[in-house]
Amino acid sequence: MNNTLTTIILAAGKGTRMQSAKPKVLQTLADKPLLAHVLDTCQSISVDKTIVVYGFGGDQVQQAMTDYSLTWVEQTEQLGTGHAVKVALDELPSTGKSLILYGDVPLVSAETLSRLKQANVQGMSMLTLTVDNPFGLGRIKRDEQGNITAIVEQKDASEQEQAIREINSGIYCVDNALLHQYLPNLSNDNAQQEYYLTDIVKMAVADGIAIAAIEPDYEFEIEGVNNRQQLAQLERKWQAKLVEDLQVQGVQFADPNRVDIRGEVSVGQDVFVDINVVFKGKVSLGNNVTIEAGCMIKDSQVGDNVNIKPYCVFDDAQVAQGATIGPFAHLRPQTVLEKNTRLGNFVEIKKSRIGEGSKVNHLSYVGDAQIGAGVNFGAGAITCNYDGVNKHQTIVGDNAFIGTNTSLVAPVTIGQTATIGAGSVITKNVEDNALAIGRGRQVQKDNYQRPEKKK
Ligand code: UD1
Ligand code: CA
Does 139 sit in the ligand 1 pocket, CB within 6 Å? Predict the structure, then answer.
């Protein structure tokens, strides 16, 4: 048990300046709650126990985080960071180490936390950074040898101390034994009458413990969110980083500032992404994929050589190589497009498979359908999959030709190489190779006189 790693995440702050009904840690960055960013990072470094100290909106926070296995500790009054960790002591193992993190500092990386943990040799390590504008933050005091001696808060700092630009991120790795020893002894005898967690540094130094300090790779890793402006700024920094990572992997962005990645995107070679594309969830793109302007691609897999034309929306779609899609196509959940399919404008597909080389080129709805290979689904042809109560299946065999403006009333099966006349309403199965026409016959009345208005 000596090597256990616990994380204590402070998340009791209300976030008044967000002007929101949501607790601050549930505000989203890249479409994910701030707290979930921290929890995902903890998961990726195999933390043994995660304690979340919550205050305002505890129910809401807990309900939003049911995917994680967490120990919740309530801090009823926000009496300071030291007090917040103190209320977690009952849940803290007596040995091992803890990472102390903030629920509103979402972007600290797994790599930085691993280094922080390794740096804790004597009992305490911390993440610091020298910044241009340290105002408001705790300053790191060092002696002539450069050893850390204390942290002094902005409001307690002398003029001399305020000139220090090395700041405390508030993120530490501390031996649990020391937390158990020091926290009950904190006092709130300071400018803010708060129990400062930072005072444990002085206590450790008095015990002859050398405090190790490391810097994060990126400044945004230690930036917190207190208001909407900061949230938006952090979002931009994070987006810039994600875009850069993809550029390193060979993606060409028409404009790195006009794309958003709200999730994880994995890519092959020579992917091109035009402006105003948004990725959500887990997306994978093969080689030579081109995504044109304004597309939203969510939780989808896209094969090699696929061309997605402007303004398409994908949600949970699998697209095989060589497909051409859009403009203005909507792929809804459980869409599977086989190789070389073509979807044109104003086409919506849901819970359907479109076979190899099939075309659905204009103004169609295909729902709950299995469409074979080589099918031509004419302009405006649709599946009537819903009878007002239940959804029904449509099956279309290979090489069938579905005439323009056909309604396929499900459940219905169209045989292979069958042909459906334009404008048909098809309510009965159609045999292989047959022609089916289901529409009013055209009548003609010669020399027809239109009715005239009486004068
Ligand atoms: C703290 C540090 C400061 C550091 C700064 C970095 C102390 C005394 N000071 O400042 O040196 O530069 O972080 O951002 O630790 N929280 C609780 N319960 C509380 C108080 C705070 O859960 O009673 C949580 C907040 O929700 C927030 C985090 O702790 O997530 C930091 O609180 P905040 O008030 O922003 O930090 P400071 O104390 O001002
Ligand atoms: Ca503060």
Answer: no
